[in-house]
Amino acid sequence: MELLLSSIDLIARWDVMAALLIGSIGGVIVGGLPGVGAAVAIAIVLPVTFSLEPIVGLTALLGIYGSSMFGGAIPAILVNTPGTPVNALTTYDGYPMTLRGEGRRALSLAYSASFYGAIFSIVALMFLAPVLASIAPMFGSREIFVAALLGITLVIITHRGQVLAAAMLASIGIFLQTIGIEPSAYTQRFTFGLGWLQSGINLIVVVLGLFAVSQALVLFMDKDKSIKLPNVGRPKILEQVRDFWIYKRVATVGSGFGVICGMIPGVGEFMSQFMSYAYAQRTSKTPELFGKGNPEGIVASEAANNSVPAAAMIPLLALGIPGEELTAMMLAVFYVHNVVPGPQLFANQMDFVLALYLCLLLLNIIVIIFLFFATGTLMKAMTIPNRFLGMMILTFSLIGVYSLRNSLTDVAIASGFGVFGFILKRLDYPTSPIILGIVLGKLMEDKLRTAMARVTTPWEFIDRPIAFILFAMIVIAVLFQGWTIIRARRDRPHKVSDV
Amino acid sequence: MTLAHLNCGAHLMADDVSEEPHVFPLGRKPGEMLFCTIMLVIGGLLIAAIGWETTWLEGKRLSAQPRFWPTLSLSGVVLFAGLNWLSRSKVERTPGRWTEAGIWLRSLEFIGWYLLYVWAIPIIGYLPATVIFCTGLTLRLGYRGRAVWAAIGFALFVVLFFKSAMNVKIPGGALYQLAPEGLRYILLRYF
Question: Considering the domain boundaries, does residue B92 fall inside one?
Answer without folding.
Answer: yes
